[in-house]
Amino acid sequence: MLAIMDDELPEFDRRVLEVLRQPMESGRVTISRAARQSDFPARFQLIAAMNPCPCGFLGHPSGKCDCTSDAVLRYQGRISGPLLDRIDIQIEVAALQPDTLLADADGEASSVIAARVALAHQRQLARQGKPNQALITGEVERHCRLDQSGELLLRKAMLHLNWSARVYHRVLKVARTIADLGDAPVILAEHISEAIQLRRGLREP
């Protein structure tokens, strides 16, 4: 699996970005030339970053952003809704204060996290023979079971955030993965809540 990384996604031509939609969905890319057409495997992991606005300071504690609301919307609008629908995790990374940058990092060691991820992956293969990311619609409904409170929370989020059916299934798969990391057989409201928060990346002007 190839990881494609970029640190300023909106600087790409929009037509170039839109070409990613089909292989992100199917894991294959089709090249057409004259009367010939070829299909190639193209399953990859996309990792990208972008500023929240043209100047990069929207939401910064210093208040330095001088972008108008229209300018922010135009900038964020370079990434289409259908492309964003296909990006499972979208998070805002706030600017860190100097004291935080200078302090020793806390949290778990990477080796501990890697072991937990490996166990979650094994659970997915044992349950359905493939990772959660590869589940198709019918399989999502079968393997991503929610408890009552989780179902209610997800329904409210869908209505409030106007999510498409594609986003609904992707949030379910992320929530299933979060549950697998905790060895939970059923997706709970806390897993849904975390999956929802992982799709709240763009800051509105």
Automatic annotation (TrEMBL):
Q: Which Pfam families match?
A: Mg_chelatase, Mg_chelatase_C
Where is each Mg chelatase-related protein C-terminal domain found? 107-199
> Which InterPro entries does the UniProt entry name for this protein?
CHLI-like, Mg_chelat-rel_C, Mg_chelatse_chII-like_cat_dom, P-loop_NTPase
Q: Which residues form the Magnesium chelatase ChlI-like catalytic domain?
A: 7-99
A GO MF annotation of the entry reads: ATP binding
> What is the name of this protein?
ATPase
Species annotation:
Massilia violaceinigra
